[in-house]
Amino acid sequence: MLFYIIGYTVLSLKVAVGLGFVIFVHELGHFLVAKLCGVKCEKFYLGFDFWGLKFCKFRYGETEYGIGIFPLGGYVKMLGQEDNPGRLKEEIERAKEKDSGQNTEANGQKSEAGPLYDPRSFLAMSVPKRMAIISAGVIMNVVFAFLMAVVAVSPWMGVPTPPCTVGETLSGDPAWQAGLRPDDEILEIAGKPMRQFRDLQRAISLGDIDPEKGVKLLVRRPGVGEPFSVMVMPNRSKGAFLIGLRPGYTTSLLRDRQSWIAKECYATTPGSPANEAKPPFECGDTIVQLDDTPINSYGPIEARLARTPDKTIKVTVERAIKNAKGAPTGKTERITIPVAPNPMRDLGMAMKMGPVTAVQQGSPAAAAGIQPGDEISQLDGVPVGDPIRLPDRLDRRAGERVVLTIRRPSTKDHFENKSIAVRLRQPVDLSLPLGVTGSFGVSSLGVAYSIVTTVDGVTSGGPAAKAGIQSGDRIVKATVKPPKDATLRYSDFGQGIAMLPMDPDNDTWWPALMSLLQQCLPGTTVELTYTRDHWKEPKTATLTPIDSANWFNPNRGFVFEPMTFDLKARSFGDAFALGGRETLDSVTMVYRTVQKLSTNQVSMRLISGPVTIVQVALHYADQGTAELLLFLTLLSANLAVINFLPIPMLDGGHFVLLCYEGIRGKPAPESVQVVLSYIGLALVLALMIWAVGLDLGAFSRR
């Protein structure tokens, strides 16, 4: 426990300093340029001191410095400049000379109709000077982003970065439909070269996508001579255009890292066959052979596991030999470890089969003419049964010819049954859904389908039957709870309480639940909330999953090391060039995000508030200093772009008013400025409430 307290304290301090500095440099820009222009700065605060609440303050010269109790930003209070619309008129009056009859010229602000502005007020400055003061914060944020990027990629640091290599495809998603596989390297998207995985993410989510035409990918596949092109049709079902990819993996098990959050290194999932194997696997072991098959990349590992789920496999690893003090000697040894099959955790209940949601290009299903919307009702003349078990039943018969009975919509309310003969292929990837919600895929057939959250049958004597669940019941919510005696273990492993709403309008939750159960610690329980015809209120039942005797999970519990390369400069000049590119990419990404939000290509539900920002910052701080600096680059670029949007109250809104004043030769009327300030305040408050609500779960992100 002391380890965690110290660890989180250290990380929290790093994050607080990092986030605070992003805000500090923005306000410092305003402050320094204002001072250079001779403006009186009355306050310089980090955080807001609403109602006078502050952590500390002190006065140096004419300026009060302090830290406000509300950590949502910061501000510099200049004489004559006020963001609160309720005090705007009062501040303008306060900035005027007390002796309204004096006939002096202060910075050209002589007024024949009334009093002059105080020569040290913000309003007394010329338009160019005020423009410089207003834009200084944004410029400082861009400069800070650049410096942080340069340090992060400098020769003495470097940032581990995933390359543009496929690790997993999500069943039913566009990349899966296009036939992309583990180890595929994406060279170009729409003609633009790709290097980092985040280049791919930005090109898809923030690119100019025509969902009807799709986007062309140039792919290099191991064992295939020349790169080839595939068309992918991105979809926006999760709030932005995505294709359903995860970055690549190496053949090594997760390496031990100095992490404050995860006390132990998990080379294997606790409770899995790989975790219980003898001799045990160790962090950093490299898999070099499975049974008699040599291994040199991750893809063959996944294919081999998918094809032998019910057999014990012999895993040969290469391991570094260490001396008595635990230091590497530079030598390695090979160890062969048998790993037993991994029984599926079962709830003893079958749900109803949903329609086919996607068909993979070049698959047996595509060749046989199976289409989205079809429903597989029979396999070789026998009811298909539990749809969760269908991948296992079909994958075991790889290479055989099977007959599927398809229920196909013919009109709005009518269906026709068709018998289709299909020769199954060898599985090429794992079938379990990998997303929070996703379709269920059958690799040997090449289809993905949904599963309806209505119970189709229960196994006699199984967990569901003992809990009183019956055929026809509708599951409306599932809560996965870790074992009570494993509090510290699941804290290390990352398992907590997970709640999944079984939305009747979204029939992809059940596969996600079953996938989650396979990754949980032994002793995990599931609380199901369900309804039945004629019931006024739903009921709740607690089920303890059991290990199936004849149904096996192809995933044996290995945790693989992500594939990365060091984003590192070779010289100081290279660091400036690489840092500049990273800064430009960050600024462009934020700008494109705002642009796509305005066109609804990116959903407003994907906005992150302060809670999420702190959580992400903690994650990067735990990864390393370079990773945190690169995140601060993105955050500082984000603050620069957002602050310069033409919204009243923000720097961009003030700049627009100054442009108006420069063109017209006089400022906008005070009444107009007040109205615009209220509009800006309402917009900013609404956005803050929305972002914080999304962070706290008050609003759904779906």
Question: How are the strands ordered across the major sheet?
Answer: 2-3-1-4
Strand content: 25-35%
Q: CA-to-CA gap between the ends?
A: 36 Å
Class derived from helix and strand content: alpha+beta
Helix proportion range: 25-40%
Shape: globular
Largest sheet: 4 strands, mixed
Radius of gyration, whole Å: 30 Å
Number of helices: 17
Low-pLDDT segments: 100-108, 110-114, 486-492
Keywords:
single chain; 702 residues; alpha+beta; four-stranded mixed beta sheet; four-stranded antiparallel beta sheet; 17 helices; 31 strands
Report on the structure:
The structure is a single chain. This protein is an alpha+beta fold. 33% of the residues lie in helices and 26% in strands. It contains 17 helices and 31 strands. Strands 2-3-1-4 form a 4-stranded mixed beta sheet, covered by helices on one side. A 4-stranded antiparallel beta sheet has the order 8-7-9-10. The protein has a 4-stranded antiparallel beta sheet with strand order 14-13-15-16. Helix 1 packs across helix 15 (625-643), helix 3 (127-152) runs antiparallel to helix 16 (651-664) and helix 13 (572-598) crosses helix 15. The relative contact order is 0.13. Mean pLDDT is 86; it is low at 100-108, 110-114 and 486-492.
Give the gist of this structure.
It is built from 17 helices and 31 strands. With 702 residues, it is α+β, with helices and mostly antiparallel strands. A 4-stranded mixed beta sheet has the order 2-3-1-4, covered by helices on one side. Strands 8-7-9-10 form a 4-stranded antiparallel beta sheet. It has a 4-stranded antiparallel beta sheet with strand order 14-13-15-16.
